[in-house]
Amino acid sequence: MSIDYEKGRRHLMRRDPVLARIIRRVGPCGLGALPDRDAFVSLLEAIASQQLSAKAADTIFCRFCDLFPPDRSPDPARIARLDDAAIRAAGFSGAKIGYVRDLAAHVADGRLDLAALESASDADVMAMLTRVKGIGRWTAEMFLIFRLKRPDVFAVDDLGLVNAVQRAYALRARPSPRRLDAISEGWRPYRSLASWYLWKSLALPAESAARAVTSRQRST
């Protein structure tokens, strides 16, 4: 699925002055520049990233890939030959080891057809992935955004997005999923792009977020 990132950027800037301020500071959306990684490896990385900071997850996943010399490319058969101790030494918890093995088994026996994910609807991708142990809604949403590059995904349970929305819109309390849905409604059909900008906004100086709110108030 091809996304016109510049069209999406203009749409978000027209619809939401808070996002417009963030977008001007961040620049072009970087989602389109992400490489098309192997789907299996992308799911493994998503499992590794669960409940961890990006830096910690990157370190652990790099150590995991080091278990597969010389090309550092895990696949279901190679994972099956590893013992749990080796995966644990890379930094995976006991629960995540189980998730990795269940994913490998689903792919190996055909219960999860990775090729079919490419053309499946967002809802069908969610249903197919969440049959695998340890792959819940959040993991499936990250796969939709970063691997399949679907344009209109918004993960209301993502803590980074929750924090980014609270900060950008100067909310006194963390927004509920219902409020996040309401805020994001105007971003359709480019909520994935909005999510990327919100994640990036967390690295912006705090005063830029305050100016964004001021800009929004002036426009209402």
Core attributes:
mainly alpha; 2 domains; 220 residues; Endonuclease III, domain 1; single chain; Endonuclease Iii, domain 2; globular; disordered C terminus
Structure description:
- This protein is mostly helical.
- It folds into two domains: 5-33 and 154-219, Endonuclease Iii, domain 2; 39-146, Hypothetical protein, domain 2 (Endonuclease III, domain 1, Orthogonal Bundle), CATH 1.10.340.
- It has 14 helices and no strands.
- The protein has helices at residues 5-15, 17-26, 39-49, 54-65, 76-81, 84-90, 94-108, 114-117, 122-129, 137-146, 159-168, 177-184, 191-201, 206-219.
- Helix 3 (39-49) packs antiparallel against helix 7 (94-108).
- The chain is globular.
CATH class of the largest domain reads Mainly Alpha
- Class by alpha and beta content: mainly alpha
Helix and strand pattern = HHHHHHHHHHHHHH
Q: Report, as a whole number of angstroms, the end-to-end distance.
A: 35 Å
**Tally of alpha and pi helices:** 14
- Globally, the shape reads globular
- Flag low-confidence runs: 212-220
Estimate nothing, just give the exact number of structural domains: 2
What name goes with the CATH superfamily of the largest domain?
Hypothetical protein, domain 2
Helical residues, percent: 55-70%
The share of residues in extended strands comes to under 5%
- Could you tell me the CATH topology label of the largest domain: Endonuclease III, domain 1
CATH architecture assignment of the largest domain: Orthogonal Bundle
Tell me the total number of β-strands: 0
Taking the sheet with the most strands, its summary is: none
Rg, please? 19 Å
Mean pLDDT: 92
